């Protein structure tokens, strides 16, 4: 299997690490080496959301998260977990649930990185469903010893709008019986296909004429909501949206529906003993989290809305001793917190400040 090449301006500093999960699924993992060749930096694992890929963190047209982490003294690692649009099998019918990501992809990537970083600190910055899956890995105790975690958009307590919830539960079932996935790239659909009606629906009332933008920004894959603040994107990023976000699989909807209904990250596979290591309800195990946690969200997130603020409220009430904070970025939606043209100025500073703080806390603990 060949991953679609990572789109970046990092030259030969991107080191691809062959990585196949223990269930046989081929994934993508790469390390970005600092310009000075340093090998003593804390490592940061970065996780994308569903249908996205590591590409969203290396946009050459903006100052991206990888650039900022490198300049701040970190060693970025990028995982393309099995929901990545860089993995060619996601255009087909390969099926998985978020349980697989939590059980295989994230813990095994963490183990592989640990083999390479020789006792150095490892922190995680996770986005959207990558963050939800990480919460399930953490609740299962499968990724112990992380130095700090940033979760963007959503983490343990997913919550959508009533409109999205209704469409996901009723319309989603209808679509699931007819479609394997919903594409983002209108060029792959054409004017007359079983997907055309969805593109027609998401164009209603849209200010932007780009169908690939409409399906993300005006009515996310027909389930309602919006994935970014339009004015926050660079024009080049706007025109690359179909490369950055791939097809949405319909067969993932039952798991998504179960966790959204419960407003908590849930294991889906109850009858398969392979998944017994995962807790049924991740929130019930959150008291075991013993690392600093930063929940981040744009003030105008119109997909996950106030999920992370809710998560902060729930965690601080249930576990008052937990080191958890909530940071809201004014004027940002969901995806633009990472792909926005000014995200380095408005968002990434919060992330770096938090990671720096985690390092100093750990350094103090080691000295004591
Ligand atoms: Zn647009």
Automatic annotation (TrEMBL):
Positions the record marks as coiled coil are none
Q: Which one Pfam family would you cite for this protein?
A: Abhydrolase_6
For the AB hydrolase-1 domain, which residue ranges apply?
A: 44-335
Which InterPro entries has this protein been placed in?
AB_hydrolase_1 (IPR000073), AB_hydrolase_fold (IPR029058), Cholesterol_Oxidase (IPR052542)
Annotated GO molecular function terms are:
oxidoreductase activity
Q: What domain of life does the UniProt record list for this protein's source? A: Bacteria
- Keyword Flavoprotein in record: yes
Q: Which cofactor does it need?
A: FAD
What Gene3D superfamilies does its record include? alpha/beta hydrolase
UniProt keyword terms in alphabetical order: FAD, Flavoprotein, Oxidoreductase
What PANTHER family would the database entry show?
CHOLESTEROL OXIDASE (PTHR47470), FAD-DEPENDENT OXIDOREDUCTASE 2 FAD BINDING DOMAIN-CONTAINING PROTEIN (PTHR47470:SF1)
The family assignment reads:
Belongs to the GMC oxidoreductase family.
Q: What protein name applies here?
A: Putative esterase/lipase
Q: Which organism is it from?
A: Streptomyces himastatinicus ATCC 53653
